Amino acid sequence: MHIFPTTHKRRKPLGEILLPLINQLREVDHWVYTMKVKGHFFRENMAMLKEALTKEFMMVDRTYRSKVALNTPMNLRKALRLIDHNLILEAKAENGFPAFHLFRTSGYRDSFVLETYYKSPHVKTTDPRFVRVDGHMGDQILLDLSHFREDVRKVLEEIVNTSELYEATDRTLTNVARVLRYHEHEDQLPVLLLHDYGILNIPQILTVLRILYGLQFKYYEGMALDEHTIMFFNQIYGDSDLFQYLLKMDRLDDRKRRELTTKARSWYGPFLEQLDVQLSQSVFMNKDESIELRGVLMGHYKRMDWVAEYAHFNPQVTEVTLEEMAKRIYEQVMNI
Predict the structure, then answer these.
(1) Residues 182, 213: contact at Cβ < 8 Å?
(2) pLDDT tens digits, residue range 13-38?
(3) Which of 17, 155, 236, 309 has its CA 20 to 30 A from that of 301?
(4) CB neighbourhood size of 318 (10 A)
């Protein structure tokens, strides 16, 4: 990596500083698309992909210029750290082709994704709520709030000065993360997929799962929701029942919160057991073959739209027990 002095004094927006890198990633993905999707595995296209990966380009910030290339990831990551030490470029192979994800994290303990600058179209995301990052101690799973960023910015631009909008958006997402990290967990993925594709149609199942998971921790101690966090859960997040629960928790005194936590721990086990029963139900994938719902999730989780269209559920299996349990738990939580 070659670093040169520069005369830039005013800091440009990060997205603008990263544009040379983003353009290079787009060029790589163009040739990946040409070969992977269109099937044009010509020698010329392979050569163009190699050229895009090895081509040097300049990263320019206020105090330096760095000459880097995608095929020298160590140098590229050093350049990114000099721009912002919370920038991460994940480079992986997807079916033999390079794939990239460029994003910025909050940078502190229990880090999460604040902003995504580029993501290769062929990157496979099983659960959009999380990002898996390669680390020195193994994979780390980060909560990803970047897909909420534009919605948060649009709401905040009505109430904060333009000069403060970027920082206010970061602050709001950070405060939201402090709440959501106790309610969102990658182990909820099977229920999330079944819910999103209309296979498990129980309105409050995700809400109750989030609430009971959260109440296993003492996160509520010192809990205080600011107006922007309340705005997020009210207008953006999309779970009105969870929003009402958070408002209630914000108003409860510590004694009531401890009482609710004790009760929630006794509800959590039976609720998970009933959910396990639900995942054990049979699904007919064709006239002669049936498989447990959890087996469908393990084998076809990347094409749940196909499962939702073609799978036929055993008519003898009913969701009533789980639905009644979810409804009863939520009522008990809200009436404490």
Answers:
(1) yes
(2) 899 999 999 999 999 999 998 887 77
(3) 236
(4) 11
